[in-house]
Amino acid sequence: MLGRLLLAGLLVAAAARFFAGYPRGGARYRHLSRREVAFLNASGDATFPRGGAIPASGSDANVAGYTDRWLAASRPRIRVLLHLLFLLVEHATIFFPAPGWGGWRRFTALSPEQRIAVLDGWRCSRYFPRRLVFTSLRAVLTMAWFAHPPVMRQLRVAPLAIPTPVCEADLLYPPIGRSPDAIRFTPADLSPPSDGTPLDLDGPLHPAWAERSA
Amino acid sequence: MTVAPGEGDVRVWAQYDRDFHEEADAVVVGSGPAGAVAAYELTRSGLRVVLVEEGPPFTPGDFELDGALSMARTMREGGLRVTRGTVMPTMQAICLGGGSLVNSAICVRAPDFVLDRWSEEFQLRETTRADLDPHYDAVAGFLGIAPTPENVQGRRNLLFRRGCEKLGYAAEPIQRNVRGCRGSGECFTGCRSRAKQSMDLSYLPAAVRGGARVLSSARVERVLVDGRRAVGVSGRIVAPFSGRGGPRFRVSAPRVVLAAGCMATPVLLHKSGNLANGSGQVGENLQFHPGVAVMGVFDERVDPAFGATQGYQSLEFLREGFKLETLWAPPAVLAVRMPGSGARLKDRLAWIPNSAVWDAIGSCNRSLGRVRARRGTSDPQLVWHLHPDDVPILAQALFTLCEIFFAAGAHTVVPGVHGFPDEIHSLEGAEVLRGGELRASHLVLGGNHAFCSTRMHGDPARGVVDEHGRSHDLRGLWIVDTGIFPQCPSVNPMWTAMALAHRAAPAIAAGA
User: Which chain A residues touch B101 with a CB distance below 8 Å?
Assistant: First the structure.
């Protein structure tokens, strides 16, 4: 009887840890659950806190939205691995707790200081597999943060608007997924090749990275 | 349905609506640098050629400028392929043009000492400097291979030259298959200026003009044999990106030329019934050029986004086992290596406008691995181990990069090595890198270039093909990708692979 009660208690505790207390509402994503969105925002803000030379935080940069787009572009096997990665770091505090009170709680339930300490624990671990997990998560968060146009503009690394000459190959290949009927160029459209004029970093940006006018 | 080859064309995913069979004089598997050269040269010699490529052609509108999304579209396994053993990311493109669409167009001839070693140790009597130079020249003429012009080098590349000059190290502008570079630094996500002469813009249109038929989105699953002779290939049409299966196809040809890449060709041979493997060498001897990268921070503005992706190199240390070069990539990809987290990390990322990244690739001939087929997928299983005796090569390369940075005026160097200082502020501080404490697991490696998994050897018992790419075991079968290199070439392999394919073409044409 006692054993059953203990088991039931453990199951309730596990269910609470895995499912209870995550924020409701907010944007809906194709591949990410709200628990994963909370984890990505928490780990994104721990990695890229608001303020400093480049003000945007992880959640300001919508790391969850980018990650969802990346998952959509990835093969199913990669998607599964990434879901497992998020789950692992969220709950591995049972085995690698944060310093301070309640350090064994899931990652998203920790204080901001504890989250940073947990990530540093992964980053500086003497065990290569733990560092590899950190590197993988950091890669996802970094890619997502850098996809935020203001970050790229502030670092002067945003793509420029570059005119693309029409060459012979453009008469052969349709856009991916379309039939050759979608090829919109004819020999009359061929243009002179690039003349090698260096780009001007102060020139106009690619529209996707340009600052929106008010 | 049987389709008789006629005028050249390119077929894409949307055009396949049923199973089909084609006949040709030669079928080439893979449209990367070696396959494209082979297809063009065979077409030029009057053969009916079908070239089969698993990836789709990319138009400029299909390019993704974001690094991760670009890799998810242009790379096998979404760009997340890693080796087992020594864990190291390595990439293989899946697109028309292969790696040439997303590489930085570096062209370097294999050095004399490498060719001498290949010739002597692997019984390759006709693979000398004098034998190969005419083929290098022919490829160079076609692609316009030339040194990177000064006006598109950018500060990031010129600082490397400054550092090398101060130290007395040889340095030179990198030769590339580029015409009219504007210095966008976007080689890895596709050249929007159409300046890079990737295979989809150069050799393949020329081959199509000559009558070659290109089947894109077509995954070859088997090499077909009749007795001891290769007679064609079969496979399945696959949707771009998702890999969803479509109709089946077969191409019958008396000449089968495999150029699927060092990691895919052995898998194809294994899955075809362990073909061409009398030597037992198919999938063995896998080598890479493991790479390390270092970031340096300067007082002056560098603006690293401008300039040829990789515009300068030093071949000074080739005999010591490493090559040095400048580097640019989507900033997020480079920033992944930046140490720290939180505010400290953001402070370091704010250095980017004043920073440059340079890298080294190692000639690690003792570090070997293997390629195996995996069940239920065409992706390979890669096992590779960095040999402990090769670690000091990379340690010395890291130190030398730091040395060049400080000579060029950097005030801080970020070596990106676990267990060592996150930042180094003096050359004396960099000595720790070559102090003997460095282990393979401390390094963040990148698996640049892959070789040797179907190596050429004059002795049929010790190699898969002869020095013209001809299978020792199976008539009608040639391999021309970098898998046939007997050892790593110590420099970027594309030009050598193309030169070898150029040399093999007449033998293939004559050898049905």
Answer: none
Is B468 considered catalytic here? Answer: no
Q: Closest approach of chain B CAs to the CA of A25, in angstroms?
A: 27
Q: In what order do the strands lie in the sheet with B245-252?
A: B2-3, B20-23, B245-252, B229-238, B218-226
pTM confidence score? 0.94
Contact call for residues B26 and B255 (beta carbons, < 8 A): yes
Q: What H or E segment, with its residue span, contains residue B370?
A: strand B369-373
Whether B78 and A175 lie within 8 Å, measured CB to CB:
no
The torsion angles phi and psi of B238, rounded to 5 degrees, stand at: -130, 140
User: Distance from A87 to chain B by nearest Cα, in Å?
Assistant: 19
Give me the residues of B, 283-312, that contact A with CB < 8 A.
303-306
SS3 B18: coil
d(CA B361, CA A156): 28
> Which residue type is seen at B467?
E
Q: Which of B204, B336, B441 sits opposite A128 (nearest CB)?
A: B441
CA distance B295 to B414: 5
Q: How far is CA A116 from CA A84, A86, A122, in A?
A: 21, 16, 10
Radius of gyration of chain A from its Cα atoms, rounded to whole angstroms? 23
Nearest to A175 among B59, B181, B204 (CB): B59
Strand partners, B248: B236
What does the pLDDT look like over A2-48, one tens digit per residue? Answer: 788 888 888 887 777 777 777 877 778 999 999 999 999 999 999 99
Name the closest residue on chain B to residue A195, using Cα atoms: B180
CA nearest B198 in A: which residue?
A169
Ordered mean pLDDT values, 10 residues apiece, chain B (512 residues): 60 97 98 98 97 98 93 92 93 96 97 97 96 98 98 98 98 98 96 97 97 98 97 97 94 98 97 97 98 96 96 98 96 87 91 96 96 92 96 96 98 93 96 89 90 98 97 97 98 98 97 71
Q: On the CB side of B446, how many CA atoms lie within 13 Å of its CA? A: 18
Between the alpha carbon of residue A36 and those of residues A83, A97, A104, B235, the distances in Å are 8, 20, 18, 39
> Are B60 and B192 within 8 A, CB to CB?
yes
Q: What is the token pair recorded at B186?
A: 């976007």
Domain ranges of chain A: 2-147
Alpha carbon of B194: minimum distance to chain A alpha carbons (Å): 7
> DSSP characters for B401-416?
HHHHHHHHT-SEEE--
Q: Using the beta-carbon criterion (under 8 Å), do A196 and B331 form an inter-chain contact?
A: no
Altogether, the residues listed in chain A come to a count of 214
Angle at A97 between CA A91 and CA A101, to 5 degrees: 115
Q: Tens digits of per-residue pLDDT, A53-107?
A: 899 999 999 999 999 999 999 888 889 999 999 999 999 999 999 999 889 999 9
Q: Which of B135, B385, B411, B449 is catalytic?
A: B449
**CB-CB under 8 Å, A131 with B418:** yes
First to last CA, chain B: 25
